[in-house]
Structures are given as structure tokens and as C-alpha cells.
Design goal:
The chain folds into two domains: 174 residues, Alpha-Beta Complex (Aspartate Aminotransferase, domain 1); 252 residues, Type I PLP-dependent aspartate aminotransferase-like (Major domain) (Aspartate Aminotransferase, domain 2), CATH 3.40.640.10. The N and C termini lie far apart (55 Å). The strands form five sheets. The chain has a five-stranded mixed β-sheet with strand order 2-8-7-6-5, sandwiched between helices. The chain is an alpha/beta fold. Bound molecules: pyridoxal-5'-phosphate. Pyridoxal-5'-phosphate binds next to helix 4 and helix 5.
Length: 462
């Protein structure tokens, strides 16, 4: 067997370790109660395997840690900024870069620069912070993802694709003056880490540009998306991941980046655009909300680590092992008959809480209840991605009721081992075998914005 076809394995060895502790059932019972049955409110010390998010939780390499020492902490014109800018230009191909403290900082600058009250922003399924910034700027998000994306068992290879007919309808209905840009995510987090195909994003770009509308990429997981293109899209098997990422970005006019995802750092982000005027607006807004446009809320050392991380994230062996580990966990759960979103996504495995807990109606927050039950079983921390995350309609105030009611097991990059994945699978299987005993929840505290982060709940029965 050719060596590159053998089982995936991590292309690194471990140099530093951080101990984790397994708590007792009684301790976890107390901890989840104190946390109002919201895994965001747990202390990490009370968590054994932390799959809450892949955001900012990656392990940096020795080269990234070394890069920290090279940080230039000058307030203005830091050498580290120019290194970051050059990495963004080289690997993603955009002209102008404004660093931000993280992805939502870039979303804020972009939304404030481009959206005016009454505008419409079409996109391939919403993301929580992205949509909120669009709404706070006076815009309304309109979902134009293909219908397959809303079906957890549909195995379409590119469930992140845009429904082009629907997109053109939206453009014709509202008029291009009311559409500042089209918001495209690669991969689509809320659909279960599902990729968009190059053919589709190319067509989105052509359609949008024909109407004079920009396309802005949410690039947080564009490398994972590129991996699926290399695997699945005819004609790309011999292309490098770096070439696919660059081609994908080339169909768009700019991106917001949460560098806490694919680019392998613990904090950071940026806005990158090709249009000088948009850049100037965003760079000016940056001084209000982030910091001077050559650091935007990041320390010089963090920009150094990010520049190195961007380059490492594109290594073929890295991304193969990263997505390989996610698939490993997903396949174990599929083999055990646990209902999950298929195909398995790029950054995590998503449990289908509707199928898992058919006796809990959506108004009783089944995914929230399932995440709490999984934590209670083993100290594995996950996150709700369903009705709680979807929040309320900005006009009617009614709860949005997404078809997908999911629990996300997000895998941090380069952090956990295959044995950890085995423990996670065992715990999910054990909760699945006792699923009838899990009851729904009642919300006892609901914050105004992004309620999933801070809401509190209590069980409806003992
Ligand atoms: C995390 C994330 C964001 C927001 O970025 P932050 O760094 O958390 O502010 C935006 N879009 C997607 C798809 C994300 O996963």
C-alpha cells in the first residue's frame, strides 16, 4: 500500500502536555446545576474532554511559540503587521488587511461599513455573530442555502452550496441597491461543518458580480472546506490545498476571518478586502472599535503567531489528519447507530437531537438538554446548535425554530488523541442507550443578545 494511503496519523509529536482531570458524577451534577444547564457556563476545570468549540482552542506549534518572541510591539507600523499582511496576500490573495481582535470584530467593521438600514444580506445559512452584526447595522439576513443543508441525513457532498435560483430571486425581489454583499461561509458551521463547492462559489461570484454585488467570504474554516473539495469535487484531486484555498478566495471580494479556527491561533482575526474604499472605511472604523489599523486589537506577537499559523494550516498532512480525526469520531458514532449529521463535517461531529430525543419537543430545548446529559455522563463538554442558538426573530420576537436541532462536538486542532475520541464515542453511546431518561428544559434566564452564550435553564422533571 502506498504510504500516503495508509491510516491518517498526526504529523507531529507531543512536546508539552497539560493535565486534565476526570470529575465524579456528583461533582458534575453540582457543576451543571450551577451552570444553569448551559455548557458555556461551566468552569473548564470541571471539564474532562472539552469539545465546546474549536475556536481559539488549537495547540500552537513550536514554530508558532517561537514566533511569539519575534513580535514587534510597536503601536504603529509593527513589523509583525506587515508579516501578517503579506501572509494574507500570499495565501488568500486579498489586497488590504485590517487586523481585529477576533472574527466578530471584523464582522462589526464590515457590517458598519457596508450595510444601511433596510438592506438585505443573502447567505448560505446564518452564523450567530455574523447575523447579529448584520442586524445591528440595520440589515436582514436571508438564507439561500440549498434545501439539502437542512436535512441531517441527506448525504449531498456540498451541503454548503447556495441555491442559485433562489439567490437570483432574492436579488430580483429586493433589487441590487438593497444588497450590499452576499455572505458566504466555507464551511457552513450551523449546517454541521458542510462545505461549499468551488463550482458553486464561482457561480455565486459570477451572478453577484453581474448585478454589481460583492461577495464576502466567512473564511474561518476555508482550509477544511478546501480539503473536502480536494476529496470530492471532480478535477481537484491533484490540486494542493493552498491552490484550492486561493482559487476559492479569488471568486470573492473580501473575507472576515476568525483566526481562532483554521489559522491555529488562540486569539485574533482580520478583515481583508480588495476594494480600496471599503478598506479605508473599515480601517477608520477600526480605530474606534479595535485599535490602530496596523494592530486592530492584536498584540504584535499574536500577529506573528497568526502569520505562521496561516502557513501551517495549509500543509496537506496537517489538514488530512485534522479532518481525519473528526471523521474517525463520526464513523464510530455512525457504526454505533447514533443519529448524527451526514456527511461528517470538517470541524466536528453534530448529534441530531431531534432523532436522539424524539420525546422532547423543540420548545423544550432538546439539544441543550442532550449537551447537559453528555456532560453529566462523562465530563465531555459540547454545545447546543439548535433553537437556543437560533434566537428570536428580530421583528416578531418569536423564537426562530431551525429544522436542525444539533449538539456539536467540536474538535480542537492538534489537541486530543484518538483515545480521547474513543472515550467521547463511548460516552455518547452510553447516553444514547439511556436516552428515554433525558427530559426537556425550561429557560429561566434569557439575555438579549446571542442568548445561547449566557442563558440559564432548569430540568422540567426530576
Ligand atoms: C467563530 C466564528 C465566527 C466569529 O468569530 P469569533 O472569532 O468567535 O469572533 C464567525 N463565523 C464563523 C463561521 C465562526 O465559526
Amino acid at each position: 500500500m502506498a504510504i500516503e494511503k495508509r491510516t491518517w496519523a498526526e504529523p507531529f509529536k507531543i512536546k508539552v502536555v497539560e493535565p486534565v482531570r476526570m470529575s465524579s458524577q456528583a461533582e458534575r451534577q453540582q457543576a451543571i446545576r450551577d451552570a444553569g444547564y448551559n455548557t458555556f457556563l461551566l468552569r473548564s476545570e470541571d471539564v474532562y474532554i472539552d469539545l465546546l468549540t474549536d475556536s481559539g482552542t488549537s495547540a500552537m506549534s513550536d514554530r508558532q511559540w517561537a514566533a511569539l518572541m519575534m513580535g514587534d510591539e510597536a503601536y504603529a507600523g509593527s513589523r509583525s503587521f506587515y508579516r501578517l499582511e503579506s501572509a494574507v496576500q500570499t495565501f488568500y490573495g486579498y489586497k488590504y488587511v485590517v487586523p481585529t481582535h477576533q472574527g466578530r470584530g471584523a464582522e462589526n467593521l464590515l457590517s458598519k461599513s457596508l450595510i444601511k438600514p433596510g438592506d438585505i444580506v443573502p447567505g448560505n445559512m446564518y452564523f450567530t455573530t455574523t447575523r447579529l452584526h448584520q442586524e445591528l447595522a440595520g440589515g436582514t439576513f436571508v438564507d439561500v442555502i440549498i434545501p439539502e443543508a437542512h436535512d441531517p441525513v441527506n448525504t449531498h457532498p456540498f451541503k454548503g452550496d447556495v441555491d442559485l435560483v433562489r439567490l437570483e430571486q432574492v436579488i430580483k425581489t429586493y433589487g441590487r441597491e438593497r444588497i450590499p454583499y452576499i455572505s458566504i461561509a466555507a464551511t457552513v458551521n450551523m449546517a454541521g461543518g458542510q462545505p461549499i463547492s468551488l463550482a458553486n462559489i464561482k457561480a455565486v461570484g459570477e451572478l453577484a458580480h453581474q448585478y454589481g454585488i460583492r461577495v464576502i467570504l466567512d473564511a474561518a474554516r476555508v482550509v477544511e472546506n478546501a480539503y473536502f473539495i480536494q476529496e470530492r469535487e471532480p478535477g481537484y484531486q491533484d490540486c494542493t490545498i493552498a491552490a484550492i484555498v486561493k482559487e476559492l478566495c479569488s471568486y470573492t471580494d473580501g473575507c472576515t476571518m476568525s483566526a481562532k479556527k483554521d489559522p491555529l491561533v488562540n486569539i485574533g482575526g482580520f478583515l481583508a478586502v480588495n476594494d480600496r474604499a471599503v478598506y479605508e472605511d473599515a480601517a477608520n472604523l477600526a480605530v474606534i472599535y479595535e485599535g490602530l489599523h496596523t494592530y486592530g486589537g492584536m498584540a504584535g506577537r499574536d500577529m506573528e503567531a497568526l502569520a505562521t499559523g496561516i502557513e501551517e494550516s495549509l500543509h496537506e498532512d496537517h489538514i488530512r489528519a485534522r479532518v481525519g480525526q473528526v471523521l474517525y469520531l463520526g464513523q464510530k458514532l455512525i457504526d454505533a447507530g447514533v443519529p448524527i449529521v451526514k456527511p461528517v463535517g470538517g470541524h466536528g461531529v453534530f448529534l441530531d437531537a431531534r432523532a436522539f430525543l424524539p420525546h422532547v419537543p423543540q420548545e423544550q430545548y432538546p439539544a441543550q438538554a442532550l449537551a447537559a446529559a453528555l456532560y453529566l455522563d462523562s465530563g465531555v463538554r459540547s454545545m447546543e446548535r439548535g433553537i437556543v442558538s437560533a434566537g428570536r426573530n428580530k421583528e416578531s420576537g418569536e423564537e426562530n425554530k431551525p429544522r436542525l436541532e444539533l449538539v456539536r462536538l467540536a474538535i480542537p486542532r492538534r489537541v486530543y488523541t484518538q483515545a480521547h475520541m474513543d472515550v467521547v464515542a463511548e460516552s455518547v453511546e452510553s447516553v444514547f442507550s439511556e436516552r428515554e431518561s433525558i427530559c426537556g428544559l425550561r429557560m429561566t434566564y434569557e439575555p438579549k443578545y446571542l442568548r445561547f452564550f449566557q442563558a440559564r435553564f432548569e430540568p422540567l422533571a426530576g
